[in-house]
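Q: My hope is that you can spare some time for a protein that puzzles me. Underneath my words sits a plain record pairing an amino acid chain with its backbone structure tokens. Those tokens are not coordinates but codes from a learned vocabulary of shapes. Thank you; the sequence and its tokens follow:
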Amino acid sequence: MIRVANAPVSYGAFELTVGVLPNVPGPERVLDAIAAAGYEGTELGPLGYFGAGETLRERLSRRGLRLAGAFVELRFGDGDLAPLAATLDLLDGFGAQPVLCDRGPRDGDVDLAGVARAVELARARGFEPSFHHHMGTRVQTPAEIERLLQGTDVALLLDSGHLTAAGGDAVQAAREWRDRVAHVHVKDVRLAVLETAPTWDEAWRGGAFCELGTGDVDLEGFFRQLDGYSGWIVVEQDWMPAPGDDPATQIEAQARNRRWLAEHVGL
């Protein structure tokens, strides 16, 4: 069964903004918006943003939402798995998937033994993690993803936007790695923004990720290759609020993204 979720980052709420920027919507407003747009769930966002334990459970259940997953950045190879342990503590009892991601920077190959240790910890706690390839990290390009898949048994979180931004073909990736995919982030991306920005960080802050169907990813082809997939489809349209930005505009965009999925791929 496919379930469709969104994530706090689509509304401007993530590690670099929560408690830092004044115009980041609060957790109740974000959860209300996710539910009103017709999503079935949400990813966790920064630890504590949605609360924990009974607070988190009540906030989700009141809106009929489920928790899809939780993003965990680790510097694989340095031996520090404390952020993962803290995330697993919070996820206990929610049935959500920990999503592993390299913290970067791009200074060589990711330590596969370090990835394996993180996977082992998650499994020992009763979780089956996935790995998120991501721009700006040591698992960014198709070749780096292939090395990860060949050198570990971790499942893949396939992200259509990050894959395309890294020079890959999202349709081909969905076809070739389909058997390892256990979680999906659906994004669209404007390659022209990447081509004109001097760095990935500036492109990201400049709105490289756009509403579904308005960028350069063949999303309909991507979903055709995922035929038979069972799991979460998570819409992410990363947004960094600028001074004076009104979150209402981004809230409306996520409602349009939900309608796009219904109208174009039947989800």
